[in-house]
Design brief:
This protein is of the alpha/beta class. 24% of the residues lie in helices and 20% in strands.
């Protein structure tokens, strides 16, 4: 495998990988991601992509974003473990980044397919199902984090970030307010507005607590990771929708970063230098956010191939 031939693996289990050359712009974008990120990720990314393309695209996009922002991303030769372990090592060690794809799931709690019929009536966004899939992705990587700790690959005093991609979630691009990723870790429910009966004027607005999400079986899944000391090993979560077809103008500009206020190893605000950053104050009763948009010349745009 030579650089510039990312789609040269055959046969390929992933249908999208197999047919990607038919979409020239998308294929060129993925190959550019590989060129930028290849030194920093595990070997064999084309082979891994031939088995499952989107997880590899997400890893490459994250690595390219951190490099573009000027972070000290460790080449695999300098990582604590050359292959295997957390996906990206920042510094020595400023942070570990572990990537995961939130999938639609199966069964009664799966996110339903996107209805593309233009004659269909307006349908409700499956918020419950989306929250369950995001929470499942966090829990999956939380279990992985504990294994990394047991194996000595991640140490007690090192920040650990879970980066979740929602590109495979039908309707995952339809956001809520606050964003669903923040609601999933802080246990935030729907907006509640109280009105004065006589004047009909709004007198109070607040978000109802949502400490868990109920599955169709009746079991509940907690949605308050960043209110629970058990998860203090997670410093932050990153959320994004990057894919071969979702290409932002600049690497990382589409990402959301949510800080854990109870993290054992917190990351400073502004650590991620692009996108939108969220943090909580006053015992998680106040949620704040800030945009980080760096000015840079058009030729550095990520999505222009």
């Amino acid at each position: 495998m030579v650089m510039g031939d990312f789609f040269g693996v055959s046969p390929a289990d992933d249908t999208l990988y197999h047919h990607m050359r038919a979409w020239r712009d998308a294929a060129a974008y993925v190959e550019r991601l590989w060129e930028l990120s290849e030194p920093y990720l595990d070997e064999g990314r084309p082979e891994a992509a031939a088995r499952a393309l989107q997880p590899v695209v997400w890893e490459m996009y994250l690595a390219a974003s951190f490099v573009d922002q000027g972070h000290d991303v460790k080449p695999r030769e300098g990582k604590r473990k050359r292959n295997g372990g957390p996906d990206i090592q920042i510094g020595d060690v400023t942070a570990w980044i572990e990537a995961v794809i939130a999938t639609a799931g199966v069964g009664r709690d799966a996110v339903p397919p996107l209805d593309t019929d233009p004659n269909s009536p307006m349908r409700k966004v499956p918020d419950r199902e989306l929250m369950l899939r995001i929470t499942n992705a966090i829990d999956e990587k939380w279990r992985k984090y504990r294994k990394y700790r047991e194996a000595g690959l991640v140490r007690e005093d090192e920040p650990f970030v879970i980066a979740i991609n929602g590109a495979e979630l039908p309707t995952g691009f339809v956001e809520s307010s606050p964003p669903r990723i923040a609601r999933a870790v802080f246990g935030i429910g729907s907006l509640v507005v109280s009105f004065d009966r006589e004047t009909l004027k709004a007198v109070d607005e607040h978000y109802a607590p949502m400490p868990d999400v109920e599955k169709m079986s009746g079991c509940t899944v907690p949605t308050k990771h960043f209110r629970d000391d058990q998860y203090k090993g997670i410093s932050a979560v990153i959320w994004g929708m990057a894919s071969p077809w979702r290409r932002p103008d600049f690497f990382g500009r589409d990402l959301m970063v949510v800080h854990n206020p109870f993290a054992a190893n917190p990351l400073p605000r502004g650590w991620f230098r692009e996108g939108v950053e969220f943090w909580a104050e006053n015992d998680v009763r106040e949620l704040h956010w800030k945009e980080h948009w760096r000015e840079r010349p058009a030729e550095t745009a990520a999505g222009n191939g």
